[in-house]
Amino acid sequence: MLNEIEVDVAVIGGGPAGLAAAISAKENGAEKVLLIERGSRLGGILNQCIHDGFGLVLFNKSLTGPEYAEIFIEKLLELKIDYMLNSMVLELTPSKKLYVANKNGYHLIKAKAVVLAMGCRERTRGAIKIAGSRPSGVYTAGLAQNFINLQNLMIGRTAVILGSGDVGLIMARRLTLEGVKIQAVVEIMPFPYGLRRNVVQCLEDYNIPLYLSHTVTEILGRDRVEAVKIAKVDENLKPIPGTEKIIPCDTVLLSVGLIPENELSRQAGVEIDPRTQGPVVNSMLQTSVKGIFACGNVLHVNDLVDYVTVEARKAGLWAAKYALNQLPEPDRKEITITLGENVRSAVPQKIIPGLDTSLFFRVYKPGKNKTLNIIVDGNKIIQKHCPSVTPSEMLKADLKGEYTLNAEKIHVEVCE
Ligand SMILES: Cc1cc2nc3c(=O)[nH]c(=O)nc-3n(C[C@H](O)[C@H](O)[C@H](O)COP(=O)(O)OP(=O)(O)OC[C@H]3O[C@@H](n4cnc5c(N)ncnc54)[C@H](O)[C@@H]3O)c2cc1C
Fold first, then answer.
1. Edge-to-edge strands of the sheet including 410-415?
2. Span(s) in the chain for CATH 3.50.50.60
3. Does the chain have fewer CB atoms within 10 Å around its N or its C terminus?
4. Separation CA 324–CA 314 (nearest Å)
5. 67, 93, 118: which to mutate for ligand 1, most atoms within 8 A of CB?
6. 295 in contact with ligand 1, CB cutoff 6 A
7. CATH node for 1-122+258-329
């Protein structure tokens, strides 16, 4: 039998984004808030991030992932917000009906507003098509982190890590501390992909070699990984013949990108931005489907959890207002931001004229002493000096509503 539940705001995902959105929705007047999480505990990816570095911006403290999550879980409990664990949202319709499966059966949740907070998943070997045999010992970095930190399982003795994103860097240090010899971190780009602080604290402090402009061209081994073949790449990221080198190892970790989990969003008809692979949203974090809001890694892959929390609070606020029929109707059409020199993506993509908006950008290529310009109708409204920019670090700017009230065009660029 289908169990029917009616709520004001349904939040999909119990990671830091979902927790903050649910709390904010409740604090902003939504009475019936329901958070749905497919895992067996709240906290999302933070549960397996036992390193510190969380909360520096919001709490001025360096917390571990579980410590950071605990602050919000306690608040959720204090506000008596309903949540379902071990419950998977299988379907979301444009009319905000959610179909959820758990051990008690199949549930239909009719929501007035929905917050998407499903996070992201890791790209796998299949996604990057590495040649070679199919031995055991190949893991994504997050899976390896889960095995070691949550299940106390050892994954190997000598490892090569492909990709220098933050997850890969953090796992290089974590595995070293567990006695694994990290033979190399191999990065296809000519620059490290993770935060500078992670390159220093996770590789340089442990003398782990980083091969830039290199990739793994083949995984060798029959039953278990025995070695990888790496090669230098040219400016088109293609391996250069004759530069191959064999590195012996019994384990390969892949840290080759995260993909926002937008299957449900697509099902609901939400427009997806091919640059971020997350929903297109406006200043209220509302997607192209009215009443469906998005925040956190499902919207765009974030480097700092603190920004996820701030963004999710806004999504929760606007979702509550939508559910209460209090969402202001904009007087004018939204303005789509146009992207100029060295800007890969912008979130939100659309500005509601007159509304204060926090904007996040990512660049294509790294550089030093650049300026982020936000140009409204030809006038440079924001000029922000950036001592260094890199694709792995988001740039942030706050655009005041007074500058966009009568605006027609908003353009952003990162240049000299
Ligand atoms: C290894 C690693 C290290 C990091 N280190 C740092 C750091 O040092 N400092 C820092 O500030 N940030 C760090 N981050 C980033 C930060 O952890 C993330 O930005 C943040 O966790 C994203 O939160 P989220 O809620 O969007 O996603 P998640 O935490 O991934 O939560 C999403 C939740 O949604 C659930 N879900 C998905 N689909 C469904 C469904 N259909 N039904 C029900 N539930 C669903 C998932 O089970 C999950 O619990 C790190 C991230 C990683 C992976």
1. 350-351, 335-339, 410-415, 367-376, 379-389
2. 1-122+258-329, 124-256
3. N
4. 15
5. 118
6. no
7. 3.50.50.60
